[in-house]
């Protein structure tokens, strides 16, 4: 709306030259005007914007005024459109009852009896325009208030906050829909202060009321957290903050916000319990053996980090890689029996740390899984003696396997570890002895089984006759670090590792248990064909051929790169090192290499990206990718071999020679 429109006069005077004369008078007074021919044009012009309307009394004679009435009724709350009504000579209200009807219709109207002096008209018009400007100012203030309220509503909604106001004199509570939701109420349900108080947990009611009283007595801000019981019986946590407003009269009120903090409280409780459990383990193992202190301290760190993210294990694998490699090289070069024994012990400790990292990665679904067709029947049959020794003589082992091979697509090493974990868990649940049953079968799953895609699956059932678990324990059984065993008797990672293995392999883990009735663990794995098992068996064992190679080694971790380079140099290879993908590409452009050995997780350019760029320079370049986990961000380079960290010298040598040999076979005529 322009200024001319918002402050112009609308003139409706159908008789003679009245309209033109009125326009001239107003123009002389500095007021622009618009002459209209009828009520319809007047209403439209007023809707487009005007300061006031100047209408002669006769313009209303025998005219349909419904559109004008709608305009007046439908005005916004800030608007009270002014009218100046020119009456006939002697047309006062006492002498003209019709004028009174127009007063009721028009509302904000000033009567001007004709004839009149131009100065009188200008004075009345200026007053009407001044009143209209005050209306515009009120509109601007209302718009500002509305904008601020809208911003506040958006901010509260974005922060998941509920707004509330409590009138202290009447104890009347006004709560927003989001505030009601924090207490389990629907938006259309009444929510009084009495309802709020009755929903507070009895153990927290005293603290809540004390906080309210302290705010009313001292004026300090109200800030309290307490539990509340929803109408459906569920328990939730809320944080309520408020401030006392006192206008100096008798009107006092609390104004504030509420927030559902149930998830935050649950996380805090979990962390507190977890920290307490870890502290008990540290104290117990310190008393048992001094040498276990460092190992347990490291396990404590890994457990905490594993609870937050499985990716931390990648960094730990980077630390283990030079340790394992260096110990392996030193062990190969020393002839002193005592030193050999110490190094063997150190390597065994490193392997234990490696196993712990694998379990953490299994729960996080980021471990190095080399899924392949596995004859589960043969695998279980071959583990019978090992399982029997693990569970002891007081427990009888009953293995029931199909005569026909049962094949699953899974990492065989991880599956063996999972079965051993389940056997040890069963043993601990039967301290007085009992029976452990392991059964394998092939099951065709239909579309009605939740969590599994339809198709054939290999089912492995491990059942014991132990103490069993109640519903609460069963619900938490696969949580990482949750254990019902005594302090120092378990890490709480066994079942979580099995659960992670099943999920990452495309299957699932099902637990069935009742107190006193034992536990049955059902491990579902995708089935594969027996022909695939036969095809996956290597045709010959690996043997070192002692070939000297030119190797480009890339790793952004200097410690890891130096340790790996020492191992490669000890094998007799020629090594060139690079600390980034960009540096490696520059080296590749300047000289030839027999193989590229690169870390996966590096800044700016990952190992897979480096492999693709390197093969643009030389398409037949063998590449060995060293990684701490298998869940790669870009897994399109399926022809890139991988070696898991940490590794020993023979594992590194085997992988390099296998890649070079594969290329040689490919290029042979």
UniProtKB/TrEMBL annotation:
Residues 311-529 form the Histidine kinase domain. CDD domains: PAS (cd00130). Its EC number is 2.7.13.3. The modification 4-aspartylphosphate is found at residue 599. InterPro entries: CheY-like_superfamily (IPR011006), HATPase_C_sf (IPR036890), HATPase_dom (IPR003594), His_kinase_dom (IPR005467), HisK_dim/P_dom (IPR003661), HisK_dim/P_sf (IPR036097), PAC (IPR001610), PAS (IPR000014). PANTHER family: SENSOR HISTIDINE KINASE (PTHR43065), TWO-COMPONENT SENSOR PPRA (PTHR43065:SF42). Residues 550-660 form the Response regulatory domain. It holds the Pfam family Response_reg. It catalyses: ATP + protein L-histidine = ADP + protein N-phospho-L-histidine. It comes from the Bacteria. Residues 222-273 form the PAC domain. Keywords: Phosphoprotein. GO terms for molecular function: phosphorelay sensor kinase activity. SMART domains: HATPase_c, HisKA, PAC, REC. The lineage of its organism: Bacteria, Pseudomonadati, Pseudomonadota, Alphaproteobacteria, Sphingomonadales. This is histidine kinase.
């Amino acid at each position: 709306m322009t200024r001319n429109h918002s402050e112009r006069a609308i003139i409706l005077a159908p008789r003679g030259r009245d309209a033109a004369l009125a326009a001239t008078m107003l123009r002389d007074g500095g007021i622009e005007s618009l002459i209209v021919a009828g009520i319809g044009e007047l209403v439209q012009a007023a809707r487009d914007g005007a300061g006031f309307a100047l209408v002669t009394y006769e313009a209303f004679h025998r005219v349909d005024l419904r559109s004008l009435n709608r305009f007046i009724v439908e005005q916004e709350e800030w608007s009270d459109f002014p009218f100046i009504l020119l009456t006939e000579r002697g047309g006062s209200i006492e002498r003209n009852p019709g004028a009174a009807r127009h007063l009721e219709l028009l509302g904000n109207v000033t009567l001007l009896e004709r004839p009149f002096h131009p100065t009188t008209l200008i004075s009345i018009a200026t007053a009407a325009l001044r009143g209209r400007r005050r209306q515009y100012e009120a509109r601007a203030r209302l718009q500002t208030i509305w904008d601020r309220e809208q911003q506040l509503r958006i901010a509260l909604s974005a922060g998941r906050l509920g707004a509330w106001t409590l009138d202290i004199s009447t104890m009347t509570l006004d709560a927003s829909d989001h505030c009601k939701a924090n207490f389990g109420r629907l938006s259309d349900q009444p929510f009084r202060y009495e309802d709020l108080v009755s929903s507070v947990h009895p153990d927290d009611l005293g603290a809540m009321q004390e906080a309210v009283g302290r705010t009313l007595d001292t004026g300090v801000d109200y800030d309290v957290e307490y539990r509340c019981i929803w109408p459906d019986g569920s328990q939730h946590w809320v944080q309520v903050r408020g401030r006392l407003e006192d206008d100096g009269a008798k009107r006092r009120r609390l104004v504030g916000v509420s927030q559902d903090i149930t998830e935050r409280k649950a996380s805090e409780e979990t962390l507190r319990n977890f920290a307490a459990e870890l502290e008990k383990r540290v104290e117990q193992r310190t008393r048992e053996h001094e040498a276990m202190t460092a190992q347990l301290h490291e396990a404590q760190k890994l457990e905490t980090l594993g609870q937050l993210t499985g990716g931390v294990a990648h960094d730990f694998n980077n630390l283990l890689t030079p340790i394992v490699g260096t110990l392996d090289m030193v062990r190969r070069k020393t002839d002193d029996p005592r030193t050999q024994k110490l190094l063997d012990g150190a390597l065994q400790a490193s392997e234990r740390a490696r196993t712990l990292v694998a379990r953490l990665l299994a729960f996080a679904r980021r471990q190095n899984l080399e899924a392949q067709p596995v004859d589960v029947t043969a695998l279980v049959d071959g583990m019978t003696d090992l399982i029997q020794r693990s569970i002891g003589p007081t427990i009888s082992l009953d293995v029931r396997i199909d005569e026909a091979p049962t094949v699953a697509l899974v990492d065989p090493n991880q599956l063996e570890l999972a079965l051993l974990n389940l056997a040890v868990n069963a043993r601990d649940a039967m301290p007085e002895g009992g029976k452990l049953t392991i059964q394998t079968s092939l099951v065709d799953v239909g579309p009605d089984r939740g969590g599994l895609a339809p198709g054939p699956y290999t089912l492995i059932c491990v059942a014991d006759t132990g103490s069993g678990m109640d519903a609460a324990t069963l619900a938490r059984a696969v949580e990482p670090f949750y254990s019902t065993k005594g302090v120092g008797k378990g890490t709480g990672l066994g079942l979580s590792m099995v659960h992670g293995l099943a999920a990452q392999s495309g299957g699932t883990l099902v637990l069935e248990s009742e107190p006193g009735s034992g536990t049955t663990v059902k491990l579902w794995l995708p089935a594969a064909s027996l022909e695939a098992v036969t095809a996956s068996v290597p045709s010959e064992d690996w043997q070192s051929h002692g070939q000297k190679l030119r190797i480009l080694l890339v790793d952004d971790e200097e410690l890891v790169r130096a340790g790996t380079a020492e191992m490669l140099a000890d094998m007799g290879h020629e090594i060139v090192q690079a600390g980034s993908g960009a540096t490696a590409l520059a080296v590749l452009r300047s000289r030839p290499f027999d193989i590229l050995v690169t870390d996966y997780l590096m800044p700016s350019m990952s190992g897979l990206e480096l492999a693709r760029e390197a093969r643009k320079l030389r398409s037949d370049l063998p590449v060995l990718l060293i990684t701490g986990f298998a869940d790669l961000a870009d897994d399109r380079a399926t022809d890139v071999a991988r070696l898991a960290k940490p590794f020993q010298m023979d594992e590194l040598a085997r992988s390099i020679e296998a890649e070079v040999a594969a290329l040689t076979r490919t290029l042979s005529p």
